[in-house]
Design a protein that fits this description.
The complex is a heterodimer of chains A (about 110) and B (about 120). With about 110 residues, chain A is mainly β. In chain A, about 0% of the residues lie in helices and about 55% in strands. Chain A starts with a strand and ends with a strand. The termini of chain B are far apart. The chains are: A mainly beta (about 110), B mainly beta (about 120).
Amino acid sequence: QKEVEQNSGPLSVPEGAIASLNCTYSDRGSQSFFWYRQYSGKSPELIMFIYSNGDKEDGRFTAQLNKASQYVSLLIRDSQPSDSATYLCAVNKSGGSNYKLTFGKGTLLTVNP
Amino acid sequence: DTGVSQNPRHKITKRGQNVTFRCDPISEHNRLYWYRQTLGQGPEFLTYFQNEAQLEKSRLLSDRFSAERPKGSFSTLEIQRTEQGDSAMYLCASSLAGISGANVLTFGAGSRLTVL
């Protein structure tokens, strides 16, 4: 089982719709969870992070965490063509390696005008 | 500019040559990371520094790879005797330890290596 799993997509949604991106992780002791956005040929940039069960909202973005199910999601409301990118889920592992992030492969999102 | 700076942005080299990449982290950050990313994959951890100490090196990293952070500021990543399989984007990131909450990594623009 991979440490961080994401559906590679592509996920295609119409402009104005809600895009839902999902991620599961294997280390039950993981503490912090991150969503990064990466445009083609560019480096990852942080969208938001979450470390408590429940929802965390930041503008059009909502991160959802369910530690019992080892599941993290990112909702993008009112999707825009400029949201078209690869979305990377990353997990901060527990214990002695808690300084580094482990990334999933990413989900490619396309927002169609 | 207070972001993470990487140089060179692009490097094309022939198989067998050595290459070196440089990373200048955000000045107040004491943690520095190198990741590698290939097409269609997420960033893969290579190594980590806390100040000048290299605290972890991925087992995936062969002996041809070496990284330094001599004064706890900038870092270099050297690849000796490059192979075609080394072609990738090499990403540097930094963060600040000791802040309550999540350890947020800020990435540089990356150095893209092409080995012919």
